[in-house]
Amino acid sequence: MLLQRLLLQIFVGFFSLVSSSTQTTSRSIEDKTAANRWSAAAASLQRPAAAAAAAAAAPAAAPAAAPAAPAAAAAEEEEDSLAAAATAAATQTSAAGNAAAAAQQQQQQQQQQQQQQLGVCFETAANIFVVAILQQQQQQQQQQQQQQQQQQKKKEQQQQHQPHKLLLLSHEQQQQQQQQQQQQQQQQQQQQHQQHQQQQQQQV
């Protein structure tokens, strides 16, 4: 009923606006004023009608909204759980990132320590190798010096013993000569003895 009355009033107001537009210019202002009044009246009537319609629709919407309340609560709980899960996942991701960064930093530190240790080992080995080469060279030089000294001593000893050797050689030569002379004398004596025997035999 309210809607019908409202439509009727709007139709009457619209009809009065159409009829007033055909009148003279002097009455156009009055018609506009009347139209504004009709519009205000229609709006004033429309507000109670809308309120009444909302009030009438509220009891019907309440039973439909009642089953939707647990679903909304469940949806809110699900959203809360999803938000909590997202927060936990973000926390885990952050923790995993921090752990990975810490592990990478630790690995880099270990690699640096290993490289430093290897560098020290190589340096130590190089120093040991150089020292060993120097020691070997020193030993070779010492051996060469000792050999040279020994050879020089031998030469000196040989030079010192040469006169004695010459004396020994001359003495041996004299003995040999004497022996040869003695042998020659013996041979001569034997020959003389043989000749003497032959002469005696011839005389007999």
Tell me what the structure shows:
The structure is a single chain. By secondary structure, this protein is mostly helical. It contains 2 helices and no strands. The radius of gyration is 74 Å and the shape is rod-shaped.
Q: Helical stretch count?
A: 2
Task: Give a short account of the largest sheet.
Answer: none
* Category from helices, strands and their pairing: mainly alpha
Alpha carbon gyration radius: 74 Å
The helix fraction, in percent, is over 70%
* β-strand amount: under 5%
Low-pLDDT stretches are: none
Keywords: Signal
In short:
This protein is an all-alpha fold and 204 residues long.
Key attributes of the depicted protein:
204 residues; mainly alpha; 2 helices; signal
Strand-helix topology:
Blueprint (H helix, E strand, L loop, with lengths): L1 H20 L6 H176 L1
Helix pairs in contact: 1-2
